[in-house]
Structure to design on (219 residues):
């Protein structure tokens, strides 16, 4: 008795009818892929993904109907799904590609290369890869490094309000003026400063400002 080998199922979301039809044909003539559905918008994306259980989703970034491809990725990732999502885009140096990857996309493919690279890109994501160009890979790395810098700068876990206050103190602003600027009571300012000292393990204002400056939290 032969075991049935299931082909990876593909869902397409692309508003350009001509391009959508071309992608459909490529998948239909492929011996290795199964077309599960093809849609011009993502208005019912959660329901469709849940019902059709795709292995791969091809998602246009710029979708009509008030919900774009990045919003759709977020919706898909808010539910249990192992689907690999490849974004389809016109430009590969666009910040939206980075946003899509941050939202949970597995990679992306330039529309002008779909005819020659689609099956390779699908194969790559199914094997744990992430298809993307070198310049987007660099943007991803730069974004991660930036996040690490921000995390390092705020290693004392100060809130944005506490950082505001210590910056004001470093500029010579008094407690009363800080309270007026932030529209809070003097007691609230004192309470924030007490928390700053505790978190930074310092005993006075000069020590707090000096440490914050030395560690790049304020300039």
């Amino acid at each position: 008795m032969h075991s049935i080998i299931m082909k990876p199922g593909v869902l397409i979301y692309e508003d350009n009818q001509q391009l959508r039809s071309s992608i459909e044909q490529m998948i239909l003539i492929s011996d290795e892929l199964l077309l599960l559905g093809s849609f011009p918008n993502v208005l019912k994306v959660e329901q469709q993904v849940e019902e059709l259980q795709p292995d791969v989703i091809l998602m246009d970034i710029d979708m009509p109907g008030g919900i774009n491809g990045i919003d759709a990725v977020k919706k898909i990732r808010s539910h249990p799904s192992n689907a690999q999502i490849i974004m389809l885009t016109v430009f590969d140096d666009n910040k939206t590609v980075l946003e899509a990857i941050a939202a949970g996309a597995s990679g992306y493919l330039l529309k002008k290369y779909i005819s020659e690279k689609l099956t390779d890109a699908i194969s790559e994501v199914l094997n744990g890869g992430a298809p993307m160009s070198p310049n987007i890979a660099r943007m991803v790395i730069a974004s991660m490094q930036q996040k690490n810098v921000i995390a390092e700068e705020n290693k004392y876990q100060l809130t944005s309000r506490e950082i505001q206050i210590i910056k004001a103190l470093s500029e010579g602003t008094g407690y009363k003026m800080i309270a007026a600027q932030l529209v809070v009571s003097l007691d609230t300012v004192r309470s924030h400063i007490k928390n700053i000292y505790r978190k930074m393990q310092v005993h006075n204002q000069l020590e707090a400002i000096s440490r914050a400056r030395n560690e790049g939290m304020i300039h």
Remarks:
- Residues 9-138 form a domain with the Rossmann fold fold (CATH 3.40.50.2300).
